């Protein structure tokens, strides 16, 4: 296991397991063992979760209950805290994963309102995603009551949009 090497642990990997500890909004700590062959760990983890190596056979919890409020607080991220370039990259990747699946015939069917047997499923899914992103922008801007923070949110969205071009 690479994690054992990183921490300088020389014991056999069969003595350890990878666990995910997550905290809910109600500050309930959940701990579960992950399968040995699990991949894409960075893509799977939520903001309120942590990975830990646990020695097999040890029954104590990995995170004490007193740390739950701190983990919940750390997981609360506001839009202004996010890197505009990273947000632009992630939105672009999400959009492109659907856009690339749109068949050329879907554009024709939609443009001329043709009822083909294939329909326009990916085009509709892409339109729904764009609408969802638009609603997110409107919601973020309109939900902020403070004019200065609202201006900062608009400025952040402009930065994100300029990086997507």
Automatic annotation (TrEMBL):
Annotated SUPFAM superfamilies: Ras GEF (SSF48366)
Start and end residues of each Ras-GEF domain: 83-165
Pfam families: RasGEF (PF00617)
GO cellular component terms listed in the entry, alphabetical order: apical plasma membrane
GO molecular function: guanyl-nucleotide exchange factor activity
InterPro entries reported for this sequence: RA_dom, Ras-like_GEF, Ras_GEF_dom_sf, RASGEF_cat_dom, RASGEF_cat_dom_sf
Domain Ras-associating: 1-58
Superkingdom field: Eukaryota
Keywords from the UniProt entry: Guanine-nucleotide releasing factor
This protein's record includes keyword Oxidoreductase: no
Gene Ontology BP, a term: Ras protein signal transduction
PANTHER family per record: GUANINE NUCLEOTIDE EXCHANGE FACTOR, RAP GUANINE NUCLEOTIDE EXCHANGE FACTOR 6
Name listed for the protein in its UniProt record: Uncharacterized protein
Organism for this UniProt entry: Rhamnusium bicolor
């Amino acid at each position: 296991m690479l994690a054992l090497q990183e921490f300088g642990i020389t014991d056999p990997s069969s003595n350890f397991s990878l666990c995910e500890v997550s905290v809910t909004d109600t500050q309930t700590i959940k701990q579960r063992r992950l399968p040995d062959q699990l991949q894409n760990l960075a893509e799977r983890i939520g903001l309120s979760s942590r990975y830990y190596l646990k020695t097999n056979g040890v029954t104590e919890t990995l995170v004490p209950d007193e740390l739950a409020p701190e983990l919940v607080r750390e997981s609360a991220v506001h839009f202004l805290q996010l890197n505009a370039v990273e947000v632009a990259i992630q939105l672009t990747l999400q959009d492109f994963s659907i856009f690339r699946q749109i068949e050329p015939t879907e554009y024709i069917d939609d443009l001329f309102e043709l009822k083909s047997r294939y329909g326009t499923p990916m085009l509709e899914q892409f339109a729904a995603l764009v609408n969802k992103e638009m609603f997110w922008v409107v919601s973020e801007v309109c939900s902020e009551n403070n004019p200065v923070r609202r201006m900062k949110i608009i400025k952040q969205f402009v930065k994100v949009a300029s990086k997507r071009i």
